[in-house]
Structure formats: structure tokens, C-alpha cells
Specification:
Aspartate Aminotransferase, domain 2, seven-stranded mixed beta sheet, globular, alpha/beta, about 400 residues, 14 helices, Aspartate Aminotransferase, domain 1
Length: about 400
């Protein structure tokens, strides 16, 4: 009926860009089962190893007993439960903001924040390597969309100074999901304060992993302005936190504006309360289990050291996201498949997710990876280096 769709799919496959889903038959962990085969996995955002933690499983069961399964309605109708409310208050306190608001996903949170805070008379300033959800949100807002080169603060300042927009909104990843590097948060805050702009900081990959007690990128030693009223902070709860969902933390007026105007919050069923109940346990583990972050640092150091002689270079990253730059899409796919044949899962990331000519393997490390797991990966990569 639509032959052009088939042509598009064939072209995508010929370019090495077609994606395929795989069915995981086991809990999320450093070792998973797919189609009856066991794999060592470096492909998950479960950075702290909480996705299958027994305390969280117990909390889910406890939450189901107390709250049932589904929320049954949107937050503004009849779906905002005690569990949601307690979690929001706990997240606000944990991150140091006056209020927090739960969203179903990070994508929906970014869409909701940007479209509620910016419109036709406004301007949005975005790092060119931001997550797709931030870009899509900017386009949906109908504000003027101004992008600057990755981490180029001089270019950002010039664009802010030149703008006469009614409201200015800077949007940036805190940890860039395909690069693994960290935004210069303190400097971004200073620019936003100087030019009276809001800063939406997407800390999906920093929350739980970075900062004092895992409180996120705002709690890194060089990010000292956590209480700036210019910040709108977003983090997800399905990565390091091990469960599902997202939240936005900000000043009270900002959060109240989102409750009244963020369409991706208003017009959707609330997440199951049992998830919020389990996330209270997750936050305790994040706060208390410092050994998890220490283990991550050790794993990162080992990976970097073991790949020093590789012809493929790791991009500069101090986070669990360790991108190994390959170059061409077909080559990245070939290496990923060769690793899979050795029982190791590392995804190949290709355009349009990353720029053309910069396809890579995205190695995601977890607390649950053991030294021998990382050695197995690096030995396989070094063997493939010799075969190239």
C-alpha cells in the first residue's frame, strides 16, 4: 500500500542504519539471557545495579498490596496517590529544591517543561549534542530554536546577549548520553543568571551516579549553585534509580506552572503508585551505598587502562558511559556483531543518533560488572583490533 516505506527501510538497511529489537528473557543485570543465549551485557543504563535489587522487588510487592496496580486516572483527576506525593517531597529534599513533580518518562518531562515555559515570543538555546527529547521539545514549543556548538559557552553567551526574546530558556544535558562528558554546569548557571534565562538541566545519566551521595550533577564539587532560582532540574528514575519514571525539581512557581500547563503531565494517566513506593527504597540505597559509586569508578579506570593500546579510542568521559569511537556505521555494526558472537553485548550507535562518520560502541558500565567481566570485553576488543 505504501511502497515508499519499503524503499526507505531498504535504504536504511543498506546504510547500516536499520535497528532491531531483541527480547530479553532475564532480569536486567550485567549478564542477561536473549533468545536462549547468555550474554555479558554492557548495554544497560542500570548503572548502580538496582533494577533487580531484592529490596526493590520487596517494595514493589508491598506497594501493590497497599496501593493496587494502576493509578486509574491522571494526577489532576483522581490518580495522585499518597505514594506519588511522598516521593515528590522526598525528591525535592534529596535534590535541594523547594518542589518536585513526577512525570511518566524523561521524554515527557522535557516535552512538558519546555512547552510550558517557552512559546512563540521566546527563545531556546540548546547544545547541539542534546538528547532528542530536548530537541523535539524545542520544536514543539514554537519558540525560536537557537543551537550552539557542543560546550561552546562563548557562542552561547553571544547568542544570549543578542536575543531580545521575552523569555530565554537554555536547555542542556548534564551528562551527554552519547558522549559521556559533563556540561560545565557552574558556568551555564552563571550565564543564565547574567542574561536572566532559565536553565533546564537534563541529568538523566548523572542522577544517582554523580555528586555527593548520588544527588546528581548539581552536587559535583565544581557545581556549587544548586539553589539558583534559574535552574529547572530534570532526572530520570529508570536508569541509576533502577525503576521507572522521571521528575522535575525547581522553584515552587515553576512547578506550579507545570502542574497547570505541562500537557504531557496533565493529559496522561499517573504512573502506578507501587513504582513510587519502590523508588523511596531506591533513594535510600542511592544515598547510603557509596560503595556502588566507588565500584563504578574502579570499573571505569580499568576499562580505560585496558584499552590504552587499542586503535579505537575512548572519548573523554569520567562517567559510566564510555563511547569507543569507530567511525563508519558498517564498521561499528561489524564489531558489535563480532562481540555478540563472543557472548558480549555492546550496542553500535549510528546516525542520526550521532553525527555521520562518528559511529561508536557505547559501553555502559555498571556496579555489578566484575573485573573479569571488563577484562573479557577488553581482550575481545583488542583481538578485534588486530583483525582490523
Amino acid at each position: 500500500m505504501f511502497p515508499d516505506l519499503a524503499d526507505q527501510l531498504r535504504a536504511r538497511e543498506q546504510q547500516g542504519l536499520r535497528r532491531f529489537r531483541q527480547i530479553v528473557e532475564s532480569p536486567q543485570a550485567s549478564h542477561v539471557t536473549i533468545d536462549g543465549h547468555d550474554y555479558l551485557a554492557f548495554s544497560s543504563n542500570d548503572y548502580l545495579g538496582l533494577a533487580n535489587h531484592p529490596d526493590l522487588i520487596h517494595s514493589i510487592c508491598e506497594g501493590a498490596q497497599h496501593y493496587g496496580v494502576g493509578a486509574g486516572a491522571s494526577h489532576l483527576i483522581n490518580g495522585h496517590s499518597t505514594a506519588h506525593h511522598i516521593l515528590e517531597e522526598t525528591l525535592a529534599q534529596f535534590t535541594g529544591f523547594p518542589r518536585a513533580l513526577l512525570f511518566s518518562t524523561g521524554y515527557m518531562a522535557n516535552i512538558g517543561v519546555v512547552t510550558a515555559l517557552a512559546g512563540r515570543e521566546d527563545a531556546i538555546f540548546a547544545d547541539k549534542l542534546n538528547h532528542a527529547s530536548l530537541n523535539d521539545a524545542a520544536l514543539l514549543s514554537r519558540a525560536k530554536f537557537i543551537r550552539y556548538s557542543h560546550l561552546d559557552l562563548a557562542a552561547l553567551e553571544q547568542r544570549l546577549a543578542d536575543s531580545n526574546a521575552r523569555r530565554k530558556l537554555v536547555i542542556s544535558d548534564a551528562v551527554f548520553s552519547m558522549e559521556g562528558d559533563i556540561a560545565p554546569i557552574k558556568q551555564l548557571i552563571a550565564l543564565c543568571e547574567k542574561y536572566h534565562a532559565l536553565l533546564l538541566l537534563d541529568d538523566a545519566h548523572g542522577f544517582g551516579v554523580l555528586g555527593q551521595q548520588g544527588r546528581g550533577s548539581l552536587f559535583l564539587p565544581d557545581s556549587e549553585s544548586v539553589h539558583s532560582p534559574n535552574i529547572v532540574y530534570m532526572a530520570t528514575l529508570g536508569k541509576a534509580a533502577g525503576v521507572f519514571g522521571a521528575f522535575v525539581a525547581a522553584q515552587a512557581d515553576v512547578v506550579e506552572t507545570l502542574i497547570q500547563s505541562a500537557r504531557s503531565y496533565i493529559y496522561t494517566t499517573a504512573t502506578p503508585p507501587l513504582l513510587s513506593h519502590a523508588l523511596l527504597t531506591s533513594l535510600k540505597l542511592i544515598e547510603l551505598d557509596e560503595w556502588r559509586r566507588e565500584a563504578l569508578l574502579q570499573n571505569i579506570a580499568q576499562l580505560k587502562n585496558d584499552l590504552l593500546s587499542s586503535c579505537w579510542k575512548l572519548l573523554p568521559s569520567s562517567t559510566p558511559i564510555q563511547p569507543l569511537l569507530i567511525g563508519e556505521s558498517h564498521e561499528a555494526v561489524r564489531i558489535s556483531r563480532a562481540l555478540r558472537e563472543r557472548g558480549i553485548l555492546v550496542p553500535a550507535i549510528r546516525p542520526p543518533t550521532v553525527p555521520r562518520g562518528k559511529a561508536r560502541l557505547r559501553i555502559s558500565l555498571s556496579t555489578t560488572h566484575q573485573p573479569h567481566d571488563i577484562l573479557r570485553l577488553t581482550q575481545a576488543l583488542n583481538e578485534l583490533t588486530l583483525d582490523s
